[in-house]
Design goal:
This protein is α/β, with parallel strands linked by helices and 354 residues long. 58% of the residues lie in helices and 6% in strands. It folds into 2 domains: 133 residues, Response regulator (Rossmann fold, 3-Layer(aba) Sandwich), CATH 3.40.50.2300; 182 residues, Hypothetical protein af1432 (Orthogonal Bundle). It has 14 helices and 5 strands.
Amino acid sequence: MKIKVANSPQIAIVDDEHSVTSLLSALLEHEGYKTLCFNSGIEFLDYLKHDRIDMVLLDLMMPGLSGYDVIKEIRDNETVEYTPILIISALTDRQSRLKALSLGIDDFLSKPIDREELWLRVRNTLKVKAYQDRILSEKSLLECTVKQDAEDIQLSHIETIRTLIIASEYRDDDTGAHVGRIGLYAKKLAQFKKLPSEYVDALHYASALHDIGKLALSDNVLQKPGPLTESEFEQVKQHTEIGARILSNASISPYLKLGAEVAIAHHECWDGSGYPFGLKGHNIPLGGRIVAICDVYDALRSPRPYKPAFDHDKTISILRHGDGRTHPEKFDPELLRLFLANESIFAEIYLQSE
C-alpha cells in the first residue's frame, strides 16, 4: 500500500546501473513520491534545461559525466530555487565525501541501500527544502509588496507635481503650456549629456516646477505689457526663493527636492550675473543650469505681454550670438553646445505642444 505524500514531491534518480534506479524508484514510490530515472548525467542535465525536480539522488561514479560534474553543473546554474542533492554511492572514503560536500551536496547514503535510512534521509531533506521554498516565497511576496509600495509613492509624488502645475495654469494658460515643454526640453538635454536615467526622470517632472513661485506674485506685475520698474523686477526675482520655500519641505520626494533646487537656481548665470545669489560656473546646481537654457529658449519662442513670439531660427541665433537681453556666456557652455547641436529636437517639442 502506498503512503500518500502531500504535493507528491518529484525526485530524480541518477545512476548508471538500471538495477539501482529501478530499486530506488520502487522504494520511493512506495512512500508516495514521484520519481524520474536517468542512467547518465548528460541525460539528466538535458532534462533540467526544460523542467524542474524537487530533489536529486545521485551516484558519484558514472561513466562520461561523473556525479561531481553533475553537482557542479546544478549549483553553477541555480538562480533562485535550491535543489537538494543526496549522494548514493559505494564510495565511503573521507576524500570523496569532502569533495562532494565542497561542491554543495546535502547528504550521503551508502550502498548497499538501507530502506529505512533512505526514507528518513529523503523525508528530512525534503522538509528542509519545503522550509527553504516557503522562505523564498515569503521573500518574493515581500519584495513585490515593497516594489508596489515604492511605485505607489512615486505615483503620489508625480500627482503632487501635476497638481502644482495645474495650479500655475490658472494664473496664465500660456504658463501651463510653457512648464510642460520645459519638462520635455530638460529631459532631452539631460539625456544628451548622458546623465543617469534616475536623474533624467526626476528632472523631467522637477523642471516643470521651476516657476511655481510665481503663484505668489501679483498679476499686475506678471501681465504688465511694458518694461518693469526696478521695484517690480525685484518682486519678480523673488519667485525663485518663494518657489524653493514651497518645495523645500518635501525631502521625501526626489522630484520635489530637485524641483526646489531648480526653482532657486534656474535664473543663475554661468558668468555670475544671475539671481538670487549670483552663483557662477559649476557652483550653480546642474538642474538649474539645464533649465536655464530650456527656459530662455521657450520664452523667446513664446509670446509675452512685453514681446512677440520669435521663430526657431531667430531664437537659436540669439542663443548662439546673443542680443541686447540674452548672451551665450550666461549659459553652461557644454550644455549650450549640446542644445545647439540638437536644436531640431527642441524645435519639434515646441511645435508638438502648440
